[in-house]
Write a structure and sequence with these properties.
Helix content is about 30%, strand content about 10%. Mean pLDDT is about 85; it is low at about 1-10, about 410-420 and about 420-435. It is α/β, with parallel strands linked by helices.
Length: about 425
C-alpha cells in the first residue's frame, strides 16, 4: 500500500456526515481515503466553518430531523457509500441531567432513519459513553436491533474508544456503533502501540506563546517565524503537515504555514493568573475548576460549553502547563488532533465549542480505516492541492451565518432571554468569588 501523490487516482468511496459540526469525523474519513460528499449541520456558524475547511464537500445547513434521503440525493447527485455522524449528546452525557425522554436523544433515531433511506454500504455512529449505561442502554439496544432489521450486520459488542489510544494527547472516551450491509464484517480499530504516546508537551511546545503578540489581542491570527523542524516532536511535525505522509490520503490544502491562527488572547486577572500558576499540574484549580495540563501527561476531555439556547457558557479550556493562562483555541486543536491548516471561527467561544463538540480526527481516521478494510478498496492520495474557502466564513456571527445559508436563526427569543439571565447570574457569582479572593 502506498501513499504516493503520483499514483493513478481512482474512485473514492463517498461519505455523508450527519450532525457534522466543523468536521472532525469528516477529516478522519478523508484522511483514510474517502470523499466527504455532503455534510448536514443545523448550526449556521458551524456549517460556515465546515464549508471553509471542506470546499469540495456539499455542506447543507439543515435540520437532520426535517430532511429525508431523497432530499440528500437530489442535492448531492452521487451515491452515498457510508453515513457517519455524532448526534448531539447532552441528553446522554454522564455530566448533568440524563433523562431518557430528553428530546435531543431522538436525534440518533433520525440518524437511523437516514441510514435506512440512503442504504449506504456501512454506517458509523459516535456518541458519549453515557449511552452504554443505565436506562440509556435500552436506547442503544433498540438502535442495534433496528439496524439489524434494516439489513446491517452490527459489530457487537459495541466499544468505547479512548482517543489517547490512537495518537491523541487527550483522555477522551467515546462510543462507536458500527454496521455494514451484505454480511461485510466491520471490526473496531486496535489501540495504537505507542512506545511514547504524544504528550501535552509534544503537542504544544513548538507553538509561540500567544501573549508575546499584541496583534492577538484583537485578532485570532498572526504571522510567526518558521519553526526549526529538527526541534519539533513527531506529533508537532504531523500537525504542521511537514511531509506528504502527514496528509495521509486526504486532499492537500493550500495554506500559509507561518500564519498561526485560532490564537486570540484571553484577558485573565492577576488573581486568576496567580491561581493558575500555583495549581499543580494534572489537578483541577479549585476556584475556576479548570484542569491544569501536565507537560508529560495528556489533556483532560475538552468540552464544548453550552450553545446560545442554554446560556452560552464558555468551554472550560484547561490551564497551560508552562504559562499562567488558559490554552488558546489553536492549542485546544493541537490537543484534539486537528492539523494547523484547519481553521475555526475567529471567536474563542465558537472556536472552543467547535473543537469540544468534534471527534478527534486521528481517532476518526482509525475507525475509518476499519470501514475501508471492510469495503475492500485500495486508497490513493488525490493529486495536486485545493484552496480553502473564503476567510469571511470564519467571521460570521449567527445572524450573518444564517443569512448566508438562507435559514432562520436557530435560537428562539425565549432562549435568548434565558441565556441573558444565566449569563448575568454567572457574572454576579464570579464577582463574588473575586471579592472573596
Amino acid at each position: 500500500m502506498t501513499n504516493s501523490r503520483t499514483a493513478k487516482p481512482q474512485s473514492r468511496p463517498t461519505v455523508l456526515d450527519v450532525f457534522a459540526g466543523v468536521g472532525g469525523l469528516a477529516l478522519g474519513f478523508e484522511q483514510a481515503g474517502f470523499d466527504v460528499a455532503a455534510a448536514l449541520e443545523i448550526d449556521p456558524v458551524h456549517a460556515a466553518t465546515h464549508a471553509f475547511n471542506f470546499p469540495r464537500c456539499r455542506t447543507l445547513c439543515a435540520d437532520a430531523t426535517r430532511i429525508c434521503g431523497a432530499d440528500v440525493r437530489s442535492r448531492v447527485h452521487t451515491p452515498i457509500n457510508v453515513v457517519v455522524g455524532g448526534a448531539p449528546c447532552q441528553g446522554f452525557s454522564m455530566i448533568g441531567k440524563r433523562a431518557l425522554d430528553d428530546p435531543r436523544n431522538q436525534l440518533v433515531k433520525h440518524f437511523l432513519r437516514l441510514v435506512v433511506e440512503l442504504e449506504p454500504a456501512a454506517f458509523v455512529l459516535e456518541n458519549v459513553r453515557g449511552l452504554t449505561v443505565g436506562k440509556h442502554r435500552r436506547v442503544l439496544d433498540e438502535l442495534a436491533t433496528e439496524f439489524e432489521h434494516a439489513g446491517y450486520s452490527v459489530t457487537l459488542p459495541w466499544q468505547v474508544l479512548n482517543a489517547r489510544d490512537y495518537g491523541v494527547p487527550q483522555d477522551r472516551q467515546r462510543l462507536f456503533l458500527l454496521g455494514a450491509r451484505n454480511g461485510k464484517g466491520l471490526r473496531y480499530p486496535l489501540p495504537e502501540l505507542f512506545c511514547h504516546p504524544p504528550t501535552c508537551r509534544d503537542a504544544l511546545e513548538d507553538l509561540p506563546d500567544a501573549e508575546d503578540f499584541d496583534e492577538l489581542t484583537d485578532s485570532d491570527a498572526v504571522h510567526v517565524q518558521p519553526a526549526n523542524p529538527d526541534r519539533l516532536s513527531a506529533y508537532a511535525r504531523e500537525m504542521r503537515c511537514l511531509s506528504n505522509d502527514a496528509w495521509h490520503y486526504g486532499y492537500v490544502r493550500e495554506w500559509d504555514r507561518n500564519l498561526m491562527t485560532a490564537s486570540l488572547r484571553t484577558a485573565h486577572t492577576d488573581i486568576s493568573r496567580r491561581r493558575f500558576r500555583d495549581a499543580r499540574p494534572g489537578t483541577v484549580e479549585p476556584i475556576s475548576r479548570f484542569y491544569k495540563l501536565a507537560a508529560n501527561g495528556v489533556s483532560n476531555t475538552l468540552r464544548a460549553g453550552t450553545d446560545s439556547a442554554r446560556g452560552a457558557f464558555t468551554s472550560p479550556r484547561p490551564i497551560h502547563y508552562a504559562h499562567d493562562r488558559c490554552v488558546t483555541v489553536r492549542e485546544m486543536a493541537r490537543l484534539h488532533g486537528f492539523p494547523d491548516w484547519f481553521r475555526f471561527h475567529v471567536t474563542k467561544w465558537h472556536g472552543a465549542r467547535q473543537i469540544g463538540n468534534s471527534v478527534p480526527p486521528p481517532l476518526a481516521r482509525a475507525v475509518a480505516e476499519c470501514v475501508r478494510e471492510a469495503l475492500d478498496f485500495e486508497p490513493t492520495s488525490p493529486p495536486g492541492s485545493i484552496s480553502l474557502g473564503s476567510a469571511d466564513l470564519l467571521r460570521f456571527g449567527m445572524t450573518k451565518a444564517a443569512a448566508h445559508w438562507g435559514v432562520d436563526v436557530p435560537i428562539s427569543r425565549r432562549n435568548r432571554k434565558s441565556g441573558a439571565r444565566k449569563r448575568k447570574q454567572r457574572d454576579i457569582e464570579q464577582a463574588l468569588v473575586g471579592a472573596g479572593a
